[in-house]
Amino acid sequence: MSNSTVSRPARVAQEIRRTLSQMLLREAKDPRFQRINITDCKVSKDLSIVRVHFALIGHNESDPEVQDALNALEKAKGFFRTELGKKLRLRIVPDIRFFYDNVPEHAQHIENLINKALNS
Prior knowledge:
Blueprint: H1 8-26, E1 36-43, E2 49-56, H2 64-75, H3 77-88, E3 95-100, H4 103-118
Parallel strand pairs: 2-3
Antiparallel strand pairs: 1-2
C-alpha cells in the first residue's frame, strides 16, 4: 500500500510508534523502559488522541511489574509528548494514552492449548 492510500491518522500512528520505540530504547532514562515493546498505536481521526499499546517482555498482565511500567510511562507522558512534537513536527501533538497489550499472552495461551490438544 502506498502512503497516499493510507489515512493520515494511520501514517501518524506509524510514525509515533517508530519514534516512541526509539525513544524508549535510546533516550528515556528510566531502566524500566528497556523491556517495554510498543506493539501498536492508534490515532483518533482528529489526531487529538493516540492509544499506545505496549507489552512488557517476559511478563504477563497480572505481574506487578506491568503496573509499575504503566505508572512510569504515565509519569513520563509529558516528556514523550514534547519529544514527539519536536521530532514529528506535528502542529497538535496527540494526548498519549497507554494500555497494556495482552494479545501476545492470549496468543501464547491458545498456542499452548493447540499443542496440548495435538499431543493428546
